[in-house]
Amino acid sequence: MSDDKEEPLTMCWFGFYQPYATSVVHIPEQVISPKEIGSGELIFIWDKYMKADVLTALLGTPVPWSPALIEGYAREWVEKDDGSYTVNLLRKEMGTCLGAVLLISRLAEDQLNPLKQYYDKKGYVLKKVKALVGDLTRDILGFLPK
Length: 146
Known about the structure:
alpha+beta, Hypothetical upf0131 protein ytfp, two-stranded antiparallel ribbon, 3 helices, 7 strands, 44% strand
């Protein structure tokens, strides 16, 4: 038996483009309690910041999160000029998008600025959206197309 401490995994997606991209949900480092899901202020994210280490580096502190699903939106992979791929979130009537909700009530307002700036540069703004978090559907804010 190994004495190595297991590191918590994160939620992320990987792959080059659909249908080869896969969403994977792992155990978050800090989870949101059921009470906080029902009453806390949540923001839906859906791309590279679903990786806990990347999000923590951006915000300067770990943020409690939970897997979440929104309907009416879907990811679309787009090839860039350099041959690499990027993912965009598009409004699609029958689409679904797996992401994460962040519990932002534990953060100072200015801690969210880098996240807001990142999504703003990509053309997304915070809008109300219904999200399925566990077995609870809530109206929350999400970074969605303008």
